[in-house]
Amino acid sequence: MVRPGAQLARLPGAVLLAHRAPRRSLWRQVLLSIVVTNLLLVFLALVIYLGRHAGT
């Protein structure tokens, strides 16, 4: 017999998060998107910096 929790564990994190806290999910999604965007910008700047100074 499969437990209800085992089926719930296969769902994506966003769906699981929406079921837990429907009021804070939007705020958490916005905050997560800002953090991911900042990480991508830092990574891109690091790649450009290393790319320019690698040949010298």
UniProtKB/TrEMBL annotation:
Keywords: Membrane, Transmembrane, Transmembrane helix. It comes from the Bacteria. The keyword Transmembrane helix applies. The chain crosses the membrane at residues 30-50. This is Histidine kinase.
